[in-house]
Design a protein that fits this description.
Blueprint lengths: L1 H14 L6 E5 L8 H9 L2 E5 L5 H4 L1 H4 L1 H19 L7 H15 L2 H11 L9 H7 L10
Parallel strand pairs: 1-2
GO molecular function, one term: nucleic acid binding
Pfam family, one: DDE_1
Protein name: DDE-1 domain-containing protein
Length: 145
């Protein structure tokens, strides 16, 4: 719990832009429930949103965009390397170079913004219905009589 409090005070608040309010998205880990952090957040006009457990794969903006794309680009650059180097394996010497290629294909402003849109977090106030509709689609009109 103290580690999170230290990070929030010494890193997040120190390096955050001066424009307010700020939005901080957190998973539901118990260490994030800290009264001192909540007090500091209120004092500094930081809005904390805790994602519903077991929904971060759908609600966390980078999971829905950048990291999903990174997984595919990583597979592609590895396949390309192995096709170009028959009989070789990817070692620690090639790893960072290959990861860098996949990383820069995945991490760009458009993909980041799209992740926030897909999660329903691209506008204020937060609209979780965007992602919840994807997770739990409403059915059409009932056929029940």
């Amino acid at each position: 719990m103290e580690l999170f409090k230290g990070w929030f005070h010494d890193h997040f608040l120190k390096h955050a832009v001066s424009a307010r309010p700020l939005l901080l998205l957190l998973d539901g880990h118990s260490t994030h429930y800290n009264p001192d952090v909540i007090r500091l957040a209120k004092q500094n006009d930081v809005i904390i949103i805790t994602l519903v457990p077991h929904t971060t794969h759908e609600m966390q903006p980078l999971d829905t965009s950048v990291f999903a794309l990174l997984k595919g680009h990583w597979r592609d650059v590895c396949h390309e390397f192995l096709q170009s180097n028959p009989g070789k394996v990817i070692s620690k010497y090639q790893f960072s170079s290959l990861l860098s290629k996949a990383w820069f294909k995945s991490l760009n402003p458009t993909n980041i913004i799209n992740g926030f849109k897909y999660s329903g977090i691209h506008v204020y106030p937060f609209n979780p219905e965007v992602a919840l509709e994807r997770i739990y689609p409403t059915s059409g009109p009932s056929n029940a009589a």
